[in-house]
Automatic annotation (TrEMBL):
Residues 5-64 form the SKP1 component POZ domain. This is SKP1 component POZ domain-containing protein. It comes from Cuscuta epithymum. Pfam families: Skp1_POZ. Keywords: Ubl conjugation pathway. InterPro entries: SKP1, SKP1-like, SKP1-like_dim_sf, SKP1/BTB/POZ_sf, Skp1_comp_POZ. Belongs to the SKP1 family. CDD domains: BTB_POZ_SKP1. Pathway: Protein modification; protein ubiquitination. GO terms for biological process: jasmonic acid mediated signaling pathway; ubiquitin-dependent protein catabolic process.
Length: 101
């Protein structure tokens, strides 16, 4: 059994998150950093708090898992997840949008 390559993301408040590269690469910015060998052992994300980064990672994991699952969830299941994901207060939604950029 092979293990997935991992990378560490560091939030603006210093918390670190170890995630699979394929999860982190859901972010085009991070993907380009990895592709260009700009990603050392830790990728700092100075504009993203740990609270928001945890939610972004949750979102990316769900989409990666949906794409590689043997019994893929229906598109409706993923749409339902996405709809629930954005049911947050306006400030959190704004922070999620900023993190997506």
């Amino acid at each position: 059994m092979s293990t997935s390559k991992m990378i560490v993301l560091k939030s603006s408040d210093g918390e670190t998150f170890e995630v699979e590269v394929m999860v982190a690469e859901q972010s085009q910015t991070i993907k380009h950093m990895i592709d260009d060998d700009c990603a050392d052992t830790v990728i700092p994300l100075p504009n993203v708090t740990s609270k928001i980064l945890a939610k972004v990672i949750e979102y990316c994991k769900r989409h990666v898992e949906a794409g590689k699952s043997e019994d893929k969830p229906s598109e409706d299941d993923l749409k339902s997840f996405d709809a629930e994901f954005v049911k947050v207060d306006q400030g959190t939604l704004f922070d999620l949008i900023l993190a997506a950029n």
